[in-house]
């Protein structure tokens, strides 16, 4: 019978007398875990290649009666049929070996647990108790080092605490592809170090702090701030991008003190990026809005009570000629659903758009009709991944790690269509096709070798080239390849699903489809819905007179958005003062992510639910919208996040879609470039001037510097040398930054989109695809 | 019968032994001609049949090692010669390379031919610059006479030979650490499997052999299996270099069949220095458990030494007379291991750090008898628990010295310090006033 339950690739062995069957290739230490037998370990990590360095996991092994002459590191030995393993539980030799190693590990380890960040959650502390001798026999001199060494602005190293397990260096090399830390020196003076002139330049450096089994690596911001046993840990989800990382938020007395990567093998495995880990102070920033405000006749904001503010907002909305809703991309599914329902019922309009950013009508059609279907699993299994208008290391870092893993482990073929060859593209050893924004359609024709196992990942920036989203969707469909649309922000897929856009109702139901409207009317218990397709962001900014802004930053939309908004009556719902509150007539404060419950949908559409980590009087957007709707006597009946979630669950996904939405782009548009001109290209770097990173100085220390990138030929023609200050200008505005020679086409100039001194969206007419002149600054 | 053999050392007395002309005059590179006319597999079989075992310490059969290289795999194969001779007491490859570098080169060409390698490397200890220069010159001369490069001796066999000087790390004598170092990384041992024969240098099938093993190959090709197996003992065939150093009248290299005893070697070397008697000795360098005067008649072959509780190792016989303090000698060795521990694994890195302090205390007479047991227990937690054999070597002299000279350790404790006059053990003893 048991033969039917096991496959030929399974191996059966005995550990401490218990039989266990595991897949071939499983390491002994992992097979023991399956039985609940915990073998102590430091260097072992399930996602890193075995090292066998710390020797803590020594066990006695025999195979078919033949014993290894000495204890073996169970983290390096794969299981075999007929193997018999005796751990510390049944072998005195293994037990003594482990205790001996533990004693040795501790001889040079300081007894500073009471002041060490790791004290209380330290694998060394814990395992010294579980698998060590009570007392050390060491009476000698301990090794000491100057402390701490900053290996980057975010990560500090106390070398005397290090047990030299090499988890951090292996992570950096094997997982992040950033081998900027390494072990130096030898013997007991061996230590983790950085290259003399190069800091630990990695977007993933925080993971080394998390997997450090002792307190050797600490985060500069969290260091000395808390004891682990004073923290309350809450599972959470990351709000920074659409990767969808599971997170853990650690809170003490109502304040977030740190965030860690959560464990979700289907999404982020056990990793996250430094932004997700270390950018959370915005929620407790000084400019946090804590009470409603109303702008008085003299134009000054004054504090107001909730009833007064709600009544003022309701009055503005009810008296509007054309009221509309604009949302930022960070709302939860429940909040977005609140905005969607509020627009339809309270404002009786479809004038709602969650794309408070660059957008196009083609994109809206794409979102309504394309059915992206790719997942992380598809990346794991893919034969070819094509990235278009998408730089995953900057724009969705866990997607990047997933692709990199496949590249490292099985030489996955990657093609990147992008204006310049980024470091990410280099790390992916990708086939790089250089294409300026506006000119990618030609590049797509060069992509071949697509099968039904291939995955095309297209970024939000694709909308900046007319016809690109259409062509890519058609390409994917024709080849049977999986398609993934990866927006930058965590809330966009949820907002789309909630129908927070002018052409869709919840569940991707087309506004123009009567049957779809009936579905919605049924759930909402109303007789009719507005039938006219709603305005897009740009149309709302142009034509609406009263606008409800939900978490909108005008500087994300365009250089003219703020002045457009200033001519209208604005009700701003936000967590902090900013461009929206500057022009607002009524301000309603809302809860930040850690203060509320909710759900994000990651780029795959997978729900990422979380509950509030801190207690707060701030309320989720949906609750406030429900109060506002009540005030307007047009109730939406969503008093809680839970109520919204229950209602959303009644909408299945609308599978029907039209196929005649495609737009054909103009591939041969000629910009008539002069000799000193180039086409502007840009994307947002992971670490930049993004508003959720405000106040995180340590994090900002590892942001990549603002540069202006040209290829060598162009630079030489313009007589520019690398490193010198260069200026790009258009529309009588300019920015300057040091020149960097990059791999690209001659007609391209690349600048980060939202970095210090280069905030392109609020500066130029468009942040890409426009002609700019390049010169010495 | 005279116990002496003169194969590797046959031309050492000649003033031009290290030159290509001197080597060729005495029949050098003749074995190569013979080998190149054989099939590679025949060469491997011949070396297997000879029973030649690795002279670098472990004694693994050389021909078997060559046979592990997968053939017909369409991959590059490499031969790497380990000339990183760094262990205290071990000093056979250095004089061999100084006196006769071409015998190594000839052996390398034959071995590379046998394992189908077209690129061979010599990884040589960086500190011995004079040897590096001499071997470099020999390689240049071999290239000039077309013994290296394309189409060697018209056989169609090509071989490039690269000399690489190490940066002074004992651990790089460990074959996988050597490969890491050769690839440009820090020298630290690699996890095995995969073994070098499958994925060695640049992840390609690689044979790593000691200098003396490879240098012994031409004579075996020249003179045949029967000649080689007529020397030595049942399982340890042939001849080898024994390096006598320390308190012996005429220190140096003695070439002899495997299985000779120290008593015989001492006779050849003129005995212990005048007026003194043997106290203890290492059979194969500082990492092999020590022997005493009880072991003078142990046959110095792989089995004989192992049966007596030590290892033949590199056959580096360090001889110590009764003026030597065992604690002091062991502490000095331990300091070496602490300095050379690569730091990768806990027992070696931390253990050697502790051992030095423990021994320093004992040498200074601090501690009690219980500390000796603690020291032994500590050695038990280090030896056999580490990533590579370096830590075993560090523990070996301590364990063995406590076995034979526990009383002397205790004497230090009773005496409140070392009872020996350290000068008495030196060459310059008596000349100081």
Relevant terms:
heterodimer; A: 777 residues; alpha/beta; seven-stranded mixed beta sheet; six-stranded mixed beta sheet; 25 helices; 38 strands; globular; B: 433 residues; five-stranded mixed beta sheet; four-stranded parallel beta sheet; 9 strands; 43% helix
Secondary structure: helix percent of chain A: 25-40%
How is the biggest beta sheet of chain B arranged? 5 strands, mixed
Name the overall outline of chain B.
Answer: globular
Span from first to last CA of chain B?
Answer: 47 Å
Total count of strands of chain B: 9
Which residue ranges of chain A are poorly predicted, with pLDDT under 50 across at least 5 consecutive positions? none
Q: What is the approximate shape of chain A?
A: globular
Largest sheet of chain A: 7 strands, mixed
Rg over alpha carbons of chain B:
22 Å
Q: Quote the beta fraction of chain B.
A: 5-15%
Strand order across the biggest sheet of chain B?
A: 6-5-9-7-8
Q: Explain this structure to me?
A:
The complex is a heterodimer of chains A (777) and B (433). Chain A is α/β, with parallel strands linked by helices and 777 residues long. Chain A contains 25 helices and 38 strands. Chain A has a 7-stranded mixed beta sheet, with helices on both faces. In chain A, strands 1, 2, 3, 4, 5 and 6 form a 6-stranded mixed beta sheet that branches. Chain A is globular and about 85 Å long. Chain A starts with a helix and ends with a strand. The mean pLDDT of chain A is 95. Chain B is of the alpha/beta class and 433 residues long. Chain B is 43% helix and 12% strand. Chain B contains 16 helices and 9 strands. In chain B, the strands form 2 sheets. Chain B has a 5-stranded mixed beta sheet with strand order 6-5-9-7-8, with helices on one face. A 4-stranded parallel beta sheet of chain B has the order 3-2-1-4, with helices on both faces. In chain B, α5 crosses α6 (101-115), α5 (93-99) crosses α7 (129-144) and α6 (101-115) crosses α10. Chains A and B meet through α3 of A and α13, α14 and α15 of B.
């Amino acid at each position: 019978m048991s033969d039917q339950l096991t496959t030929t690739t399974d191996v059966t062995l005995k550990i401490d007398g218990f039989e266990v069957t595991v897949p071939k290739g499983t390491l002994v230490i992992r097979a023991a875990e399956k039985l609940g037998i915990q073998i102590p370990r430091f260097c072992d990590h399930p996602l890193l290649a075995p090292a066998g360095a710390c020797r803590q996991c020594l066990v006695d092994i025999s195979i078919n009666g033949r014993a290894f002459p000495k204890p073996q590191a169970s983290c390096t030995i794969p299981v075999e049929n007929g193997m018999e393993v005796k751990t510390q539980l049944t072998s005195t030799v293994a037990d003594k070996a482990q205790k001996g190693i533990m004693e040795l590990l501790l001889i040079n380890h300081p007894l500073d647990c009471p002041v060490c960040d790791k004290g209380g959650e330290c694998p060394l502390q814990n395992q010294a108790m579980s698998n060590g001798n009570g007392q050390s026999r060491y009476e000698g001199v301990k090794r000491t080092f100057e402390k701490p060494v900053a290996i980057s602005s975010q990560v500090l190293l106390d070398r005397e605490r290090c047990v030299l397990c090499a988890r951090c260096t292996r992570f950096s090399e094997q997982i992040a592809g950033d081998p900027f830390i390494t072990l130096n020196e030898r013997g007991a003076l061996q230590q983790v170090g950085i290259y003399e002139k190069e800091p630990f330049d990695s977007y993933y450096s925080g993971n080394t702090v998390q997997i450090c089994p002792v307190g050797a690596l600490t985060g500069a911001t969290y260091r000395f701030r808390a004891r682990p046993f004073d923290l309350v840990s809450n599972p959470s989800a990351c709000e920074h991008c659409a990767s969808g990382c599971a997170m853990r938020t650690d809170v003490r007395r109502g304040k977030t003190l740190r965030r860690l990567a959560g464990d979700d093998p289907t999404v982020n495995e056990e990793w996250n990026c430094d932004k997700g880990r270390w950018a959370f102070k915005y929620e407790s920033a000084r400019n946090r809005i804590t009470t409603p405000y109303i702008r008085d006749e003299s134009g000054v904001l004054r504090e107001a009570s909730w009833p007064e503010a709600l009544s003022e907002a309701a009055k503005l909305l009810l008296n509007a000629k054309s009221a509309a809703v604009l949302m930022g991309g960070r709302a939860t599914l429940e909040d977005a659903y609140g905005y969607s329902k509020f627009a339809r019922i309270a404002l009786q309009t479809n004038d709602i758009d969650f794309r408070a950013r660059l957008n196009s009508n083609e994109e809206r059609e794409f979102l309504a009709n394309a059915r992206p279907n790719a997942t992380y699993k598809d990346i794991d299994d893919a034969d070819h991944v094509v990235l278009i208008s998408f730089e995953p290391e900057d724009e969705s870092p866990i997607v990047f790690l997933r692709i990199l893993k496949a590249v490292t482990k099985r030489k996955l073929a990657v093609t990147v269509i992008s204006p310049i060859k980024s470091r990410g593209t280099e790390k992916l050893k990708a086939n790089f096709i250089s294409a300026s924004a506006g000119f990618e359609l030609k590049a797509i024709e060069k992509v071949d070798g697509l099968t039904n196992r291939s995955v095309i990942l297209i970024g939000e920036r694709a909308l900046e080239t007319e016809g690109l989203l259409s062509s890519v969707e058609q390409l994917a469909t024709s080849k049977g390849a999986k398609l993934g649309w990866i927006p930058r922000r965590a809330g966009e897929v949820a907002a789309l699903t909630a129908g927070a856009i002018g052409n869709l109702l919840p569940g991707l139901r087309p506004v123009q489809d009567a049957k779809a409207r009936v579905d919605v009317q049924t759930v909402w218990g109303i007789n009719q819905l507005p039938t006219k397709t709603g305005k897009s962001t740009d149309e709302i900014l142009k034509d609406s007179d009263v606008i409800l802004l939900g978490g909108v930053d005008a500087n994300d939309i365009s250089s003219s958005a703020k002045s457009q908004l200033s001519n209208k009556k604005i009700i701003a719902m936000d967590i902090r003062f900013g461009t929206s509150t500057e022009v607002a007539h009524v301000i309603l404060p809302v809860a930040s992510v850690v203060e509320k419950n909710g759900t994000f949908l990651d780029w795959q559409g997978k729900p990422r639910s979380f509950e509030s980590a801190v207690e707060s009087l701030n309320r989720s957007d949906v609750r406030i919208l429900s109060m506002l709707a009540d005030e307007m006597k047009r109730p939406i009946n969503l008093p809680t996040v839970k109520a919204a979630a229950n209602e959303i669950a009644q909408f299945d996904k609308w599978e029907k879609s039209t196929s005649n939405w495609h737009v054909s782009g103009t591939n041969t548009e000629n910009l008539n470039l002069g000799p000193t001109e180039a086409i502007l290209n840009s994307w947002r770097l992971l670490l930049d001037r993004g508003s959720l990173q405000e106040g995180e100085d340590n994090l900002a220390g590892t942001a990549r510097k603002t540069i202006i990138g040209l290829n060598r030929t162009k630079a030489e023609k313009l007589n520019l040398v690398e490193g010198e200050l260069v200026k790009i200008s258009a529309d009588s505005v300019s920015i300057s930054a040091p020149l960097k020679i990059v791999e690209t086409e001659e007609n391209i100039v690349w600048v980060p989109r939202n970095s210090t001194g280069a905030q392109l969206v609020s500066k130029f007419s468009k942040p890409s695809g426009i002609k700019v002149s390049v010169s010495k600054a | 019968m005279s116990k002496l053999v003169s194969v590797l050392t046959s031309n050492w007395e000649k003033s031009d032994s290290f030159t290509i002309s001197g080597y060729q005059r005495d029949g050098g590179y003749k074995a190569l001609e013979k080998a190149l006319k054989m099939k590679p597999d025949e060469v491997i079989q011949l070396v297997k049949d000879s029973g030649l075992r690795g002279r670098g310490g472990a004694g693994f059969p050389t021909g078997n090692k060559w046979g592990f290289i997968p053939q017909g795999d369409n991959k590059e194969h490499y031969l790497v010669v380990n000339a990183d001779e760094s262990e205290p007491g071990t000093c056979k490859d250095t004089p061999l390379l100084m006196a006769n570098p071409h015998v190594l080169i000839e052996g390398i060409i034959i071995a590379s031919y046998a394992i189908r390698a077209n690129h061979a490397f010599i990884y040589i200890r960086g500190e011995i610059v004079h040897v590096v220069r001499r071997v470099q010159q020999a390689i240049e001369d071999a290239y000039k006479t077309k013994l290296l490069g394309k189409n060697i001796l018209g056989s169609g066999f090509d071989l490039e030979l690269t000399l690489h000087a190490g940066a002074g790390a004992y651990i790089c004598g460990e074959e996988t650490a050597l490969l890491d170092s050769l690839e440009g990384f820090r020298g630290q041992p690699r996890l095995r499997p995969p073994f070098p024969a499958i994925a060695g240098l640049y992840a390609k099938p690689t044979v790593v052999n000691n200098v003396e093993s490879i240098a012994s190959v031409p004579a075996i090709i020249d003179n045949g299996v029967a000649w080689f197996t007529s020397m030595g003992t049942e399982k340890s065939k042939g001849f080898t270099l024994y390096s006598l150093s320390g308190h012996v009248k005429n220190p140096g290299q003695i070439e002899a069949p495997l299985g000779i005893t120290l008593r015989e070697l001492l006779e050849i070397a003129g005995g212990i220095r005048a007026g003194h008697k043997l106290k203890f000795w290492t059979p194969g360098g500082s990492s092999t458990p020590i022997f005493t005067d009880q072991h003078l008649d142990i046959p110095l072959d792989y089995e004989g030494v192992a049966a007596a509780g030590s290892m033949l190792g590199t056959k580096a016989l360090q001889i110590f007379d009764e003026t030597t303090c065992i604690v002091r000698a062991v502490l000095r060795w331990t300091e070496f291991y602490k300095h050379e521990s690569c730091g990768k694994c806990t027992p070696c890195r931390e253990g050697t750090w502790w051992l030095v302090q423990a021994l320093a205390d004992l040498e200074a007479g601090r501690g009690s008898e219980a500390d000796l047991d603690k020291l032994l227990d500590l050695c038990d937690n280090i030896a056999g628990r580490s990533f590579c054999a370096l830590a075993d070597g560090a523990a070996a002299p301590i364990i063995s010295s406590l076995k034979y000279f526990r009383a002397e350790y205790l004497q230090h404790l009773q005496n409140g310090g070392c009872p020996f006059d350290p000068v008495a053990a030196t060459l310059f003893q008596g000349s100081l006033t």
